[in-house]
Every structure is written in C-alpha cells, then in structure tokens.
Design brief:
The chain is α/β, with parallel strands linked by helices and 529 residues long. Among the domains are: 128 residues, Nucleotidyltransferase, domain 5; 240 residues, Rossmann fold, CATH 3.40.50. The protein is built from 17 helices and 17 strands. It has a 7-stranded mixed beta sheet with strand order 7-8-6-9-13-14-17, sandwiched between helices. A 5-stranded mixed beta sheet has the order 3-2-1-4-5, with helices on both faces. It has a 3-stranded antiparallel beta sheet with strand order 10-11-12. The longest helix has 31 residues.
C-alpha cells in the first residue's frame, strides 16, 4: 500500500470544508486501514470544530452518505481485526523488552527478542496485507477520495507522542458515523482499529438515557452505563490489557463528549476504578509532555451571592476556604494562594491571577448557541467575560498548569453537537493553559468543595499526576472514605439525600457521595501530567 501525496493547493479547501467531509473522509481512511492518515483528519476535524465554536457561524452540514459493507468487504474487515489483535499482543511484549538498553539486556531477554522479532514481523506483514486487501475491496468507493488526497500526505502518527508520555498510556480516538462507531487504538508500539455495530442515532439515545440516570442520585445508573461500556470499552478491552494501560487519553466525537467515561460500568467496577482518564484535544498536543510545577499555589475566584437571573452559590466561600491556605496559620486550606470572592472577583483580579499555576473559578459559566457574546463567565461584581473578549483579549495562560471551572455545566452548551464541551477547553489551551478541569452537569455544591479539596491535596501531598489525582478523588467518593451525610445543595437547588435503607446505586448513609452524580461530571482536558 503506497503512500499518497497531497499538494498545497488543496490546503485551504481542506480547512474550509464542513464537518461532514472530515468525518466521512476519516471514516473512509479507517475502513481502508490507513490509521495515521485518519488520525490527522480527526485532528483537522477538531480544528474545524474549534473554529466553528468560537465563530458561531451558521452553516449547512453537507456530510455525504457512507455506503454499507458487502459480504466481501466484511470478510476483509474481520481478517483485519484478527491480524490487529495478534500484532497488539506481540507489540506490547516487545515494547517492554526494547525499553531495556541493548547493553543491559540479559541473555534471556536477548533470546526472547530473537524469538519475538520474526513473529512480530509476520504479524506486521499480515496486518499490512490486510490493509492492502481492504484498500482493494473499497477501491470503487475511494476513487474520488484518492484524488482529493493525492496532493497532500497525511502521515500523522501519534505512537511517538504516546510513547513519550509513558508505556502504560493508550490513546483512543472515537469516530461516530451514521452506521457504525470506529475506535482507533494508539499504543506506544502499534495502531489498531475496531468497528462497533452501533450508529449515531442509537448511540445518542443511549447517551441521553445514561445522562438522565446519572443526574438522579436516587436512580441506579449502572444498567445504562453498562450498556455503553459494552459499546465503548469492551471492544478494545483486550487491547488495553495487552498494552498494560493505566492512563487513557480519549479523543471524543459528537455526543460522546457529553458522557463521563469515568462512570462507564463493566458490571463490577466503574472505569475510574481501573484507569486514569483525560480528554485529548489537538489544541493541547504541543504541551502534553510539559511537566507541571512541583509546588502549586492557587488563585481562587468565586461568586456566592444571588445575581439577577442566576441562583446564589452559598457553598462557594467554604469551597474556596477549604482549598486556599491564605497564610501559615490557616488550618483549612490545601494550597497556598489568594481568594477573590464576590465583589473582589473582578476582571482585574482575574488577570492578576493568570500568573498562578492553578486558577480555580467557582461561578456560573453560561454556554448558549448563537454568538460568542452568548457564552460567558459571570464575575463576582456581576460583570461578564464573554468568549469573544477572552479570545481576542490579552489573556495569556502560559503559566497555568490547571484551570478549574467549578461551576454549572461549564463544559456543556445547548447546541447538541458536543463541540462546546471541548470548545472552551481548546480556547483556554490555545491561550497557553496546560490542563482544564470542567463539569458536565450542575454539580452538588457541598460535595464539590469536598471533591476539589481532596483532588488538590492528593496531587500536592502524593505527587500524583492531575489525571491520577482526579481518579483518586473519585475513588474516595465511590468507596466512601468521606463520611459526610445529610442534606447537600445542588448549585442553587436543594437536594435531600435519601435516608435509611436505599436501593443499589443510590445514596448510602455510609457512602453519601458514591453515586456518580457527585463525582463523575468532572472531566480533565489536555495536559494530564
């Protein structure tokens, strides 16, 4: 299978085409097994979505209809899956052996490498032959696409990036199509592709049902979460095990960005109990390997008072006081820093805080379809910082290791496509922020303060990565290491925990925050180190 070359004359047309073009092109490349090229197209799709998000231009979606598979094509795909599985297992073992410097390898290790190398070569040849066969099977479908790709080489390969981040890191690209779901698996050694027989319509319905269950603390969401697990994780379960994965970077598509993957349930455990998770965005690719500062200090900015059109956030003062240690005599805080609350939370205070490694914003963040003016952060003095001003203004976040948005649905807007989930995160990362922590639904006021305090303490005292600190904080809620009980307040809305005997999946007096409603909405985007 020869490389295709693409010239510069189609570069502008690539950037101007609509989302449907990128998704169908990536789908075509995946079906042909040209995974590095598909990854590059997905990165281009992320850039297109980001552009669409910040510009809010209305435009038609001209995506084409993708043809189905005939019997011959399905046989080729089945053979591809078999070859890829063999390659994954052998590649994982070889990677461990190659991690040892050649002059330090034992005789047994050298012998094992000699045994594995021909088998790995054979598996790789089978893999390539399968890709060639797929390309031939799809020849009639890909003629026009080949012409479009003929003038520019899309040879993006994320294996080097994943390897630099750690041998136990795996990148999962999800691509949702009308008739199927594609999962691209990138390990430090190999590229794989899995196809799941669920289309966008059914997947969207399953996600909607799961989100509804997740936001009802008295309802057991495990059936809905298990159904999604079978579609989203089970097809790559063996690949993750073979790679020794402990951290998953997720490149999500469409409505998958509304779903907290940490809450997916395998029938026994939540995904957070097995993996640290982070959302991969193309905007953060260049700083994914940047090491954070050893000792964090934090600027906490928040709004607690009622402002017309917005509910008060009465637990915000306690949240900030529990996080920020304002002096050596402060018994409550975790990180040294400063607090700007209510009237002190001004635009000037926010700009001054950009020099801190951690910025913690506890206020309303509003996303609405329309223009950049309709999406804004509500400041403590009742003024608004809209996304247009943030994008064009002098807001340099290059010193920020983590920007935490502890507010109502900071990651979710109302246009229903999922783009806005990563939209602000991508914008903040383009401004220099390495990591962004946001929420997928209105979170409980009291529990959020406890969760954030736990996350920062775990990171600071145990020298964990941001992703692992997030996971450990989630485990504390799941397993009930905190024994808080009674009444808690949703952001601006009272919510009484169930008392006494409760069904599985609902509030347990010994584990009051074990339901994923309390711990699952927090998502980490970008640099997770």
């Amino acid at each position: 299978m020869g490389d295709v070359t693409l010239g510069q004359d189609l570069q502008k047309s690539f950037l101007k085409t609509v989302e449907g073009y990128y998704k169908n092109l990536a789908d075509l490349l995946v079906n042909q097994g040209r995974l590095p090229e598909a990854q590059q197209v997905l990165a281009m799709l992320k850039e297109e979505e980001y552009y669409d998000f910040i510009r809010r231009d209305a435009g038609a979606d001209n995506r084409a209809t993708q043809a189905g598979y005939n019997a011959v094509e399905q046989q080729q795909l089945d053979a591809y899956q078999e070859a890829a599985q063999q390659l994954a297992a052998l590649g994982a073992e070889m990677l461990q052996l190659e991690a040892v410097k050649p002059f330090q390898r034992s005789p047994e290790q050298k012998a094992r490498i000699q045994q594995l190398r021909p088998r790995l070569d054979q598996a790789h040849q089978a893999f390539i032959q399968t890709l060639d066969a797929i390309q031939q099977a799809f020849a009639q479908l890909s003629v026009e696409r080949q012409k479009e790709l003929a003038q520019r080489q899309l040879d993006h390969d994320d294996r080097g990036l994943v390897k630099d981040l750690g041998h136990d890191v795996v990148l999962l690209h999800y691509l949702v199509m009308d008739d199927a779901l594609h999962i691209l698996v990138t390990t430090p050694r190999v590229l794989l592709a899995r196809k799941v027989a669920i289309g966008a319509k059914d997947l969207n319905q399953a996600i909607q049902q799961a989100r509804a269950a997740l936001q009802q603390p008295r309802q057991d969401p495990k059936p809905e979460l298990n159904a999604l697990y079978r579609h989203l994780i089970q097809p790559v379960e063996a690949d993750l095990k073979a790679a020794g994965a402990r951290t998953l970077m997720l490149s999500l598509d469409g409505s998958l960005r509304y779903l907290p993957f940490a809450a997916l349930h395998d029938g026994t455990n939540y995904l957070a109990e097995r993996y640290a998770l982070a959302i991969y965005t193309a905007a953060a690719r260049d700083n994914l390997k940047d090491k954070p500062q050893n000792d964090w200090y934090l600027a906490g900015l928040g709004l607690s008072q009622k402002i017309e059109g917005f509910n008060p956030l009465p637990a915000v003062p306690d949240e900030l006081n529990g996080i920020v240690k304002q002096n050596d005599q402060d018994p409550e805080g975790v990180l040294q820093g400063s607090i700007h609350l209510d009237q002190d939370f001004t635009l000037a205070a926010l700009k001054e805080s950009l020099a801190y490694p951690v910025i913690h914003l506890a206020s309303h963040f509003v996303f609405k379809p329309g223009t950049e003016k309709d999406c804004f952060l509500l400041l403590g003095d009742s003024s608004q910082l809209d996304l247009g001003s943030f994008r064009t203004g002098d807001y340099r976040l290059g010193d920020v290791d983590l920007l935490t948005l502890s507010a109502c649905e900071t990651a979710v807007g109302g246009n229903g496509t999922g783009k806005e989930v990563e939209g602000f995160g991508a914008l903040a990362q383009k401004k220099g922020a390495k990591g962004v922590l946001a929420t997928l639904w209105p979170v409980a006021d009291n529990s959020t303060g406890i969760f954030m305090q736990s996350l920062y303490r775990l990171r600071q005292e145990n020298h964990l990565s941001k992703a692992e600190a997030l996971r450990q904080a989630q485990l504390r809620f799941i397993r009930g290491s905190r024994q808080e009980q009674g009444e808690t307040a949703q952001r601006g809305k009272k919510l009484v925990l169930a008392q006494g005997k409760t069904p599985q999946g609902t509030a347990d007096p010994d584990k009051p925050y074990a339901h994923p409603y309390y711990w699952a909405p927090f998502i980490l985007m970008g640099n997770w180190l």
